[in-house]
Amino acid sequence: MQLAPHCRSIGALAGTQRAGSPACSSGAARADRLVVYAQSILENARIYAEDVDDDLLDQIFDCLVRDFSKHALQLYSKPSSSPHQMELCLRMLRKPVVDAGRFNRVWQQVHALKDAYELS
Questions:
Q1: Pick from 44, 42, 19, 43: nearest CA to 29
Q2: What is the pLDDT of residues 59-90, one digit of tens each?
Q3: Fewest CB within 10 A of the end CB: N or C in the chain?
Q4: Where are the alpha helices (H) located in the chain, listed in sequence order?
Q5: For the purposes of burial, counting CB atoms within 10 Å of the CB of 19, is it exposed (0-12), middle (13-18) or buried (19 or more)?
Q6: Listed residue (19, 89, 107, 95) closest to 63, CA to CA
Q7: Residue range(s) defining the domain that contains residue 46
């Protein structure tokens, strides 16, 4: 399975989200969780490769990259952020690879599950 560039970017940035001050802690904790989720998804994607379509995996990472960048921007925007923290946050900002065709294919898969499950 070949990972799209945005799938690899979260892992590459994992070491930079901690800027070392309390001003950063809540956003950094959320970014840490995203990195853990991303790692878990990638590990399980190898195990369940037959059941997990590449489009779905890429679309999940599209969302994770957006969330990670959102947290980095929130940390950057805090009045208490130091210049060093702001520099690290800017390095974490990424734009996911946009693919309308992929989005539509995944949406069709999801829409096909409409009414397949019922809350009890």
A1: 19
A2: 999 999 999 999 999 999 999 999 999 999 99
A3: C
A4: 5-13, 25-47, 54-77, 83-92, 100-112
A5: buried
A6: 95
A7: 5-112
Structural domains of the chain, count? 1
Query: Considering the domain boundaries, does residue 13 fall inside one?
Result: yes
Q: Judge whether 119 lies within some domain.
A: no
Q: Of 37, 46, 45, 48, give the one whose Cα is nearest residue 10.
A: 37
51 is a domain residue: yes
Average pLDDT value for the chain: 81
Comparing 7-21, 33-47, 59-73, the range with the smallest average pLDDT is: 7-21
What tokens appear for 60 in the block?
């999940």
What is the pTM (predicted TM-score) of this model?
A: 0.70
Task: Show the 3-state SS of 3-26.
Answer: CCHHHHHHHHHHHHCCCCCHHHHH
